[in-house]
Design goal:
This protein is mainly α. The chain is built from 21 helices and no strands. It has helices spanning 7-47, 58-84, 86-100, 103-119, 122-128, 138-161, 166-181, 189-201, 207-222, 227-231, 234-238, 240-253, 268-298, 302-340, 346-362, 364-376, 383-407, 414-428, 433-442, 449-465, 475-515. Helix 16 (364-376) packs across helix 17 (383-407). The longest helix has 41 residues, at 7-47. The termini are far apart.
C-alpha cells in the first residue's frame, strides 16, 4: 500500500494521466478547430443573408473550448481509472471463473458484471439524458440496456467455452434483431431507432476495456489452438443485446410518442450536480460487487486491491468531470449548430461530412483497431487504408442521418440499416472468423464519446427545426453499421489478394520446376 502512495508512483500516475489527456485531447481538438472556423464563417453567412442571427456566440465558443480541455482531462483521468479498475476486474474475474470450471457461476457473474459495467458507461448516460424523463425513465432505460449486455455477454462466454464459430452467431443474432424489428409499426419508430443507438454507445470507455479483458481472461485460461481468435468478438456479440432488449421493451410498452430533448440551459452547478448524482448511482454497485466477490472468491493481495480501489476513485472523478463538460459545453454547441443553419442547409451537408470523418480520425479506439487489423492480416492491410475506409464510412453515416432528419423524417431506419447488415452477413460467409470478430468488435468504435456528446445533439437540433419535425434518434446506430461492413469488405479484398498471391507463387514454382525438366 505504501508503494502505491509513494511519490515515485504519484509521478508515474501523473505522467500516465497526462499521456491519456493528450490522447483524449487529440479526439477533441479537430472538433474545436472546426467549430472555431464555423464561428468565423457565420459572419459571412450573415452578410449574405443566409442566416439572420449568430449561430454560435463568442461566449458559447469560449465555453466550448474550455469545456473541450476539461473534458479531455476528465477522460484522461477516467481512462487511467478504467485501466486500473474495470480492466483488472474483467481479467481477474474472467481467469478465476474459468479456473473454477463452474458454468453456472460463470453465467451468473458474467451477467451481473456485464450489466453493472454497462450501466456505468458514460456514453450511455449521455444518450439517456436525451430521453425526456416524463416519457421514459432514463435509469430504467439504462438498466434495460445493461441487462441486454449482461445476457449476451453470457452468450459470448459460452461461445468461447464451447469453441463456436462467430460466423454462425453473426447470422443468427442479426436475424433475430430484424425479425423483432419487423414487428414494429409506424407508431413506435423512436424505440426502433433508440435500440440501435443503445448498441452503439455501449461500446464505450467502460464497457469495452472490461469486455475485452474478460474475454482475454477466459480464452487465455481455456487455452487451445483458437484462444487468440476466441478473445475477439466478445464486445461485438454483447453489443447486440441492447438492440434486442430495447426492441422487446418497446413492444411491451406499446406505441409511445417518444421525443428527444437536449438540456442546453444547464448552469455549471446544475451540470456538476447532475453528473455527480448519475456517476454515484452507477459506480457504487460495481464497487460493491468487487468487494463481495473478492471476499468470497478472489482474495487479492491488499496492495493489488488497494490499487483497484484507487482506480475506482480516478474513474469516479474522471467520469464526473467528463459528463459535466459534455453537459455544459458540448451538447449546447452541437444543438446550436443543428438549429442555426436551417436556412443555409448546405452547411449541414458540409458539417456532416467533416464531423463524421473527424470523429473517426480522432477516436483513440480506431487506432487500436487499426493495429489489430494489421496484425490479423499479417501486414497486408495497411493502417492508412483502414483509417480512410472508416472515415469515409462515418462521413457517409452522418450525412445519411442529416439527410434523413431534413428530408425523410418518416423513413424507417430499417431501410438504412437492414441492407448494410444483410451485406455484412453475406460478406461474413467469405472471410475468416478472426476477421469477422474484429469487424464485430469494431462496429461501435466509430460511435465513441464525441458521437454521443456532439454528433447526437447536432442531429437532434436539425430534426427539431426541419420542415417535418422528428426525434433525431438513430444517428449513432447508423454510425455503428459502417465500420462493421467496411472492415468485412477489406477482409474480402485481403482474402482475394491472398488467393492471387498464392496462385502467383505456385505458378512461379511450377515454371521453375518445368524449366529444370530435361526433354530428349
Amino acid at each position: 500500500m505504501n508503494k502505491v502512495l509513494s511519490f515515485k508512483n504519484f509521478k508515474a500516475i501523473f505522467k500516465e494521466i497526462f499521456s491519456k489527456f493528450l490522447e483524449s485531447f487529440a479526439s477533441v481538438l479537430p472538433i474545436l478547430i472546426v467549430v472555431a472556423i464555423v464561428y468565423g464563417f457565420q459572419f459571412l453567412l450573415l452578410d449574405l443573408n443566409y442566416i439572420n442571427k449568430e449561430v454560435i456566440s463568442l461566449s458559447l465558443l469560449i465555453t466550448f473550448i474550455i469545456c473541450g480541455i476539461i473534458l479531455s482531462v476528465g477522460m484522461g483521468i477516467f481512462s487511467l481509472g478504467a485501466d486500473m479498475s474495470m480492466t483488472s476486474i474483467g481479467r481477474y474475474v474472467g481467469e478465476d471463473l474459468t479456473k473454477r470450471k463452474s458454468i453456472i457461476l460463470m453465467v451468473i457473474v458474467g451477467f451481473l458484471l456485464g450489466t453493472l459495467a454497462t450501466i456505468a458507461e458514460p456514453d450511455l448516460t449521455v444518450l439517456a439524458e436525451y430521453i425526456p424523463s416524463d416519457q421514459l425513465n432514463p435509469l430504467v432505460f439504462k438498466v434495460v440496456v445493461g441487462i441486454g449486455i449482461g445476457l449476451f455477454l453470457v452468450i459470448g462466454i459460452l461461445r468461447i467455452l464451447f469453441n463456436q464459430s462467430i460466423k454462425l452467431w453473426v447470422i443468427l443474432l442479426y436475424g433475430i434483431v430484424f425479425m423483432i424489428a419487423c414487428l414494429y409499426g409506424d407508431g413506435n419508430e423512436a424505440f426502433l431507432e433508440l435500440s440501435f443507438d443503445a448498441s452503439g454507445v455501449t461500446t464505450g470507455q467502460v464497457t469495452v476495456p472490461f469486455l475485452i479483458s474478460f474475454g482475454v481472461g477466459i480464452a487465455g485460461v481455456k487455452g487451445g489452438a483458437n484462444d487468440k481468435d476466441n478473445s475477439f468478438g466478445m464486445s461485438g456479440i454483447a453489443s447486440v443485446g441492447p438492440i434486442i432488449m430495447v426492441l422487446i421493451f418497446g413492444l411491451i410498452l406499446g406505441p409511445i410518442n417518444l421525443e428527444s430533448q437536449t438540456n442546453d440551459t444547464y448552469t455549471l452547478f446544475e451540470a456538476f450536480k447532475t453528473s455527480l448524482e448519475d456517476v454515484s448511482l452507477v459506480i457504487a454497485p460495481i464497487l460493491g460487487f468487487l468487494i463481495i466477490y473478492d471476499i468470497i472468491f478472489l482474495r487479492l493481495r491488499k496492495e493489488e486491491l488497494f490499487r483497484i480501489l484507487v482506480g475506482f476513485v480516478y474513474t469516479f472523478v474522471g467520469l464526473v468531470v467528463f459528463l459535466t463538460a459534455a453537459n455544459y459545453g458540448f451538447i449546447p454547441v452541437g444543438k446550436a449548430l443543428g438549429v442555426g443553419f436551417i436556412n443555409a442547409k448546405f452547411m449541414y451537408i458540409i458539417l456532416a461530412i467533416i464531423f463524421g470523418a473527424l470523429v473517426v480520425l480522432a477516436e483513440p479506439g480506431v487506432h487500436i483497431l487499426n493495429e489489430q487489423v494489421e496484425d490479423v492480416s499479417n501486414g497486408r492491410i495497411k493502417k492508412k487504408t483502414l483509417l480512410l475506409g472508416l472515415s469515409i464510412g462515418a462521413a457517409l453515416s452522418v450525412l445519411i442521418s442529416v439527410l434523413k432528419a431534413l428530408y425523410f423524417p418518416n423513413l424507417s431506419i430499417l431501410y438504412i440499416l437492414a441492407p448494410g447488415y444483410i451485406l455484412g452477413v453475406i460478406l461474413s460467409l467469405f472471410i475468416d472468423d478472426m476477421f469477422i470478430a474484429v469487424a464485430f468488435d469494431g462496429g461501435g468504435i466509430a460511435a465513441g464519446s464525441m458521437s454521443s456528446a456532439f454528433i447526437m445533439p447536432f442531429i437532434i437540433g436539425i430534426a427539431s427545426v426541419a420542415p417535418i419535425k422528428s426525434n433525431g434518434f438513430g444517428a449513432i446506430g447508423t454510425m455503428v453499421m459502417f465500420p462493421f461492413v467496411t472492415i468485412e469488405l477489406i477482409g474480402v479484398i485481403s482474402k482475394i489478394d491472398t488467393v492471387i498471391s498464392n496462385k502467383k507463387a505456385r505458378d512461379k514454382i511450377r515454371s521453375e520446376y518445368d524449366a529444370q525438366i530435361i526433354t530428349f
